[in-house]
Automatic annotation (TrEMBL):
SUPFAM superfamilies: Obg GTP-binding protein N-terminal domain, P-loop containing nucleoside triphosphate hydrolases. It comes from Phascolarctos cinereus (Koala). This is GTP-binding protein 10. Its main location: nucleus. GO terms for cellular component: mitochondrion; nucleolus. Residues 13-148 form the Obg domain. It comes from the Eukaryota.
Amino acid sequence: MVRCGCLLLRKYGNFMDNLRLFAKGGAGGMGYPRLGGEGGNGGDVWVVAKKRMSLKKIKDKYPQKRFVAGGGANSRISALKGEKGLDYEISVPVGITVTDERGQIIGELNKEDDRILIAKGGLGGNLLSNFLPSKGQKRIIHLDLKLIADIGLVGFPNAGKSSLLSRVSHAKPEIADYAFTTLKPQLGKIMYEDFKQVSVADLPGLIEGAHMNKGMGHKFLKHIERTKQLLFVVDVSGFQLSSETKFRSAFETVILLTKELELYKEDLMKKPSLLAVNKMDLPDAKDKFSELVNQLRNPKDFSHLFEKDEIPGKTMEFQHIIPISAQTGEGIEELKNCLRLSIDEQSNQDNEKFSKKQLLNLHNSKLSHVDPSLKYARMEITECH
Ligand SMILES: Nc1nc2c(ncn2[C@@H]2O[C@H](COP(=O)(O)OP(=O)(O)OP(=O)(O)O)[C@@H](O)[C@H]2O)c(=O)[nH]1
Ligand SMILES: [Mg+2]
């Protein structure tokens, strides 16, 4: 039996769940003192939730991460009331918390088309301001993607994801012997003896072609993006959607699930992942499990089982592979321990990364006070270590 010891360590990737940007409202337009004309107000900068957006897309499209709205028009004889400057709308993903530089929450975008004003345009010049306009508001904004859970359950239909969630938490998801029982994410929490909680999202089953929107398709895959880690759940005896579709062994389901994630978004492959092999109470399960582990150790030797375009560029490297039975409870404690270990390890690495960054900032700010020639000399020394 492969226990927690079956560790295939991998580096944690950097799934993008936050972005810092600069926003500036447009300046107001000049007033017209002689005729009492008012300049137009500057445009405002908004963030607007859009379904198909991701923080990565924003960063790739606008590497400078600078968003400035249009200026208000000056008042003139032909148009005494100057026109308002153009607003700037930044499309952001749904499920974002918007905070300012001090960490104060400005608002949340929970559904499509929700919008928040992040930088107000300046006022146009008028009588009160002696016809002088004001500048637009400047602001550093943080966008944080709210994760729906620490762990997302990924698997073909009927693998036993909902059964597993009901085993490890107090959640009561629907469980049934047909595909697509779960139609939207269900959340549960694993409680540990030291009161630590790890949230788990039971997600709708995935089928081949999900990246092309088959089955629950994108809806399902979008949820996977919003979990810290993935727990693949596969039926040790394999899966067949219907008599018209191919039977897939447990190994094939792992490979095909990986391929679907890769085709949807390669970044998903960077998330720390674990594998729970379910239904170990079934006859022959132990032999099938050993076969699966062997296949996962040498995936290349089994590439003949797939069409070329079904093979993922990289095989998923699981941190732990745990045989379980959601029905009898076998392996469930082990699984809970492995999940805890993996989540703790990830937060330690995140903390470490954060401290290193802080130290580097501190180091650089100290160096900026010394003679520039010394600065380079010192940098070399630091790099030698
Ligand atoms: N023998 C056995 N059956 C199980 C086990 N876990 C789940 N099942 C059965 O498998 C069937 C599917 O279980 P679900 O938990 O609904 O599966 P799911 O992965 O949530 O399915 P979808 O919501 O359709 O994606 C049900 O009939 C369960 O009773 C197990 O460990 N052993
Ligand atoms: Mg389910």
